Amino acid sequence: MSGIESDETPSRARAAAFRAVLFFAFWLAISGWKATDLPVGLAATAAATWASLALMPPTGARVRFGALAALAAHFLRGSVLAGFDVARRALSRDLDLNPGFVTAPLRLPPGNARNAFCALASLAPGSLPVGIDGDTLLLHCLDVAQPVASYLAAQETLFIRALGDE
Amino acid sequence: MNFALDLFSIAAIAAGAFFFFAGSVGLLRFPDSLTRLHALSKADNLGLGLVVLGLLPRVGSLLDALKLLAIWALVLLSGAASAQLIGRALRRRGGDE
Amino acid sequence: MSVLQILDVGLALLVLAVAVWTIAAREIFGAVVAYVAYGLLLAIVWIRLFAPDVALTEAAIGSGVTGILLVTSGARLKSAGKASAAAKPGLSLHLSAAALSLLAATALAGVILALPEPSPTLAPEARQELAATGLGNPVTAVLIAWRSFDTMLEKIVLLLAVVGVWSVASDRFWGGAPAPLGRANPQGALLLLEQTLVPLGILVGVHIFWVGANAPGGAFQAGAILAAMWMIVMIARASEPPRVNSLWLRLALISGPAVFIVAGLAGIGMAGNFFAYPDGFAKPIILFIEAFMLLTIAATLPVLVAGPPRRSFGP
Amino acid sequence: MNDFLLFAAGFILLTVAAGLFRVLRGPGDADRMMAAQLLGTGGIASLLLIASATTVAGVEDVALGLALLAAFASVAFVNGVATDDEQPQEAGGK
Q1: What's the pLDDT score for residue B95?
Q2: Are C190 and B88 an interchain contact pair (Cβ–Cβ within 8 Å)?
Q3: Residue C283 lies in a domain
Q4: Touching check for A40 and chain C: CB below 8 Å?
Q5: Inter-chain contact D44–B44, Cβ cutoff 8 Å?
Q6: Rg (CA), chain A
Q7: Domain that residue D48 falls in
Q8: Residue A105's pLDDT is what?
């Protein structure tokens, strides 16, 4: 419970406010809107914000919403393609698999942003991150001939643009 | 209008069911654990997304719709994390079997 | 047969198949995973039986606490199993186990066949008196208002389980902390999960607790969810299992039953009976008790999973 | 419409069950682990479909709980495996 007030800086306060708004929106989504529930919702939001700040201290990165929308569009398109890709291979007569490992360089430094990017990458078509060696992402691919690395590089550019350099 | 929305629901849910089907076929047919993991994590998340999309016109309010989307988002997050966790465990054991 | 009936029959067959698999599986891990899958299916079955409260419990306990407990035990048993595999049970043990199972199954079948028709129920009375509690969820009313003694004793059973787990600690570690729940250097995906899931889990837990007064939900389900969140924090090594002599931990462990007993005793003075709630105040008192039950459950389950103390005080 | 939703729920459960028994067979523990993940996603889908076709209060909350805890078995699995054969985290590349 301690420590939040003591090192209050503008970026920390901003991060707290930003996350609190997100968490309250999530609360409204799961619990619905009722005036009598408001105090409980605010208390839960405060607890969630506290936990979030304790587990993931703000880094000062800023979210750019336009770029975030572009990332989301790229990601959704990729997820749909990934589903079609798997479906096509599974239902084709000869499976059409050429599995193997591919490496892709990572520009994001180790940390939360990289972890989040790897999560996005695990839903990309045809590839699945299975490990990191230094700054290299090791991917398992359904078809090593697919341009997996360039796809991920494009997604990483969008990701860095959306969540800012750290 | 209602008819159009119903048609949309039916199309989206049928597409979602198709991806669940394809994912299971992949699980049955793919030759090794890592490729099966692809089938599981890619097809089923899309299947659930389409089912949620199909159910959206049937909910009572905007907040109910957001709740369905929140459930899907949580499944996506869990799916992405578990796929990586399992994939990594598989690679540590030297891969395929 | 309607589509719904076909679905129900299919669901029942699937549950049976997974149950048989759980028992017949040769590998420990296969059985454990099948059991977790069985729990998930049961949650759907409970929804079909119009018992969302139970479904919620099954979902929260089955895929959270039980999952971790069984998967971890399975992994440990597997590494220990290589040593004990030599000691195979003899024929007499096989036969007596079969005889005992048969006896238990026959007795259960007999009891189920002997149930009176229609089965006795207090459900109409419970629904009728619901207004007196100010609650909208009859399950919560039954648990905290009309069968409060049972509910309190259940929490004491949880407490006894903690005592049981702690009592296997060796003397030199007493007062120390259990071994860390997770391994060193948690990987990125786990950290991401911990950082994003835990705040959302807190919101979901509070929501399930709060709606429990009027809709399916309640302290037990919410406590199980919060417990799962605490466990994931410990597995990701963002915090360690607390020392067993920590005052805060012990207060959290006993607060639920303690507040329940105090409220029960206060009932003697204010409403003339043990566990009676004064008119008009039933709902706030019940929510107050439930809040502490939530705390106790959220603290107890991870402590049970963390196990006995294995590390001494340290400096 | 309701019949269609129930039919879709049953169909998803059926396909998921087929995949379930495939991965439960193994051969590795990681395959078995996928079973929990598979049933989590498919179970949530059929739960939401059933909920939309029959009116039961609170089904969304059950789905929410399942979604929240969907990764738990995998987390426990990776963790439990690790506590046995304590290998270094980054044990080289392939």
Answers
A1: 43
A2: no
A3: yes
A4: yes
A5: no
A6: 20
A7: 2-82
A8: 81
* Interior angle at CA C111, CA C105 and CA C117, nearest 5: 140
Instruction: Spell out the domain ranges in chain B.
Output: 2-92
Residue B77, H or E segment: helix B62-92
Q: How far apart are alpha carbons C22 and A71 in whole angstroms?
A: 43
> Is residue C309, in this structure, part of any structural domain at all?
yes
Here the ipTM equals 0.86
- Residue located via tokens 């250097």: C185
Does residue D94 belong to the interface with chain A, where contact is any CB pair within 8 Å?
yes
Q: What is the pLDDT of residue A33?
A: 82
| For residue A17, pLDDT beyond 90 | no
Residues shown for chain C: 315
Distance CA C201, CA C60 (A): 11
In 3D space, the residue among A131, C27, A121 whose CA is nearest the CA of residue D24 turns out to be C27
DSSP string, D8-49: HHHHHHHHHHHHHHHHHT-SSHHHHHHHHHHHHHHHHHHHHH
- Residue C254 in any domain: the answer is yes
Q: Is the pLDDT of residue D78 over 90?
A: no
Is residue C284 within a helix (H) or strand (E), and if so which, with residue range? helix C282-306
Q: What is the mean pLDDT of residues B11-28?
A: 90
Q: Which residues of C touch A30 (CB under 8 A)?
A: 203-204, 207
Query: Chain D within 8 Å of C235 (Cβ-Cβ)?
Result: yes
pLDDT surpasses 60 at C199: yes
Report the distance separating Cα D14 and Cα C6, nearest Å.
12
Selected residues 173-212 of chain C with any CB under 8 Å from a CB in chain A? 188-189, 191-192, 194-196, 198-200, 202-204, 206-207, 210-211
Q: Decide if B88 touches C, using CB distance below 8 A.
A: yes
- The two structure tokens encoding residue A2: 């301690």
Count of structural domains within chain C: 1
Region D39-50 average pLDDT: 90
Residue A106 is classified by DSSP as -
User: Dihedral, CA atoms, A144, A145, A149, A150, nearest 10 degrees?
Assistant: -170
Average pLDDT of the residues in C164-189: 80
Give chain D's domain count: 1
Residue C206 lies in a domain: yes
Q: Give the Cα separation of C90 and C99 in Å (integer).
A: 14
In a domain, D94, yes or no: no
Structure confidence at residue A3 as a pLDDT band (50, 70, 90) = very low
